[in-house]
Structure formats: C-alpha cells, structure tokens
Amino acid sequence: MDAWRLDDDIIQEAAQIVCSGGVVVFPTTGLYGLAADAFNPAAVDKVFVAKQRPPDRPILILVSNIGEIRHLVQEIPLAAERLMTAFWPGKLTLVFQAGTGVLPSLTAGTGNIGIRLPVHPVARSLVRAAGRPVTATSANLSGRPGCSRIMDIDATVLRAVDLILDAGPLEGGAGSTIVDVTHDPPVILREGAIPKSLIFAICSVRPQTG
Predict the structure, then answer these.
(1) What is the total count of domains within the chain?
(2) Residue 1 — pLDDT band, cuts 50, 70, 90?
(3) Is residue 205 part of a domain?
(4) Which residues pair with 114 in a beta bridge?
(5) Domain interval for residue 137
(6) Domain holding 126: CATH number?
(7) Residue-wise pLDDT tens digits, 80-123
(8) Is residue 46, in this structure, part of any structural domain at all?
(9) What single string gives the DSSP state of each residue in 156-195?
(10) Which residues pair with 135 in a beta bridge?
(11) Cβ(29)–Cβ(170) under 8 Å?
C-alpha cells in the first residue's frame, strides 16, 4: 500500500469519527499517531486513556494551515514566523503560549501548546476534512517506542480506537524537532529531523538548547 495515499472516502469517514468524539489511528511521516478533536475534552481524555499517558504529559496538535495558529496561541513571535516559513509543512513542532480556547489537558498545566503543520498528505487531509485541529501524539503506550507499522501498535491502544488508517509501513526515523518559541531566543527542546544548525540559521541568532 502507498504510505502517502488513502482513498478520499476513508479520509472523510475518519474525519467524521474525529468530529463525533472518536479516536483514529493515522499515519504521519515517520510514525502512526492518534487523532482526536483537540477541542473536545472527552475525546482528548480518550487519547490519554488509550495511551495510559500521565496527565502531566502534554499532547501536541496538528493544524491544516498556518492561519489556524492565530486562534490557538497568544502570540506568534518573529522567530516562529521565520521557522514556520522555512520548515512547514514538515518535521518541526513549535511550542507557543496557549490561547484561552486550548484545553488545559493538552498543555498539562504548562500553559504552552505544541503545534505542527504535517507534511504527510494523509495527515493533512484528515485535519483539513475534520475542519479543526487534531491531536498528534504517537500511537503507543506511554513510555514505549512509537510504531511505524500498524502490526507493531500495542493491542491495548488498538482496542481503544474507532478506526485505523493503515497506510502501510512508514519511514520511521527521527521525530520532529521541537522548539519552544515562548523564549527569546527560542529553546530547542528536542533535536529531531531538522538539525539545530538550521534552526539557529533561520532564527538569525543562536538559540538556547534545553
């Protein structure tokens, strides 16, 4: 199966499930994730339960376009603008000060929210069809490695979801680079697919690492 394509009808079905409060396993570039309506507290709780994830661990969200960011964050610093222009869609997660409409469970009480514009067309199509941001945590039990194949996902997780979008084996590899843009200069929380040298270059200053 082509890991970069799925039938539009299946995407629409998945989007309807998300909009109805369900949880869907879906492909990102490297690993499978769990998609739920990021504005639905009960749906987000299902994701925490499925992963057995502690409530003090935040969950990032996906958007379908940069314009959605303004409704989810308190401000978009200049460094964030530069990074989004350079690397989105792609393997870059930016951490912003969460806006008032973001669920506290997603921020784990930090007041910050991680956001990414995905490069995988299935992920982007799902978010676009749902018409709202969706969760993007990996489809694994908390503390366990992420999975690039459906067959490797723990049965406990699979029993907790409503639909599986199987796009075949994914590429695996490094996860997204995570940059906290609530600081000036920004702080690299995790170096992933995008090397810190490129982050430094785009920000035009040498960010801190943390």
Answers:
(1) 1
(2) very low
(3) no
(4) 95
(5) 8-64+117-173
(6) 3.90.870.10
(7) 999 999 999 999 999 999 999 999 999 999 999 999 999 999 99
(8) yes
(9) HHHHT-SEE------------EEEETTSSS-EEEE--SS-
(10) 61
(11) yes
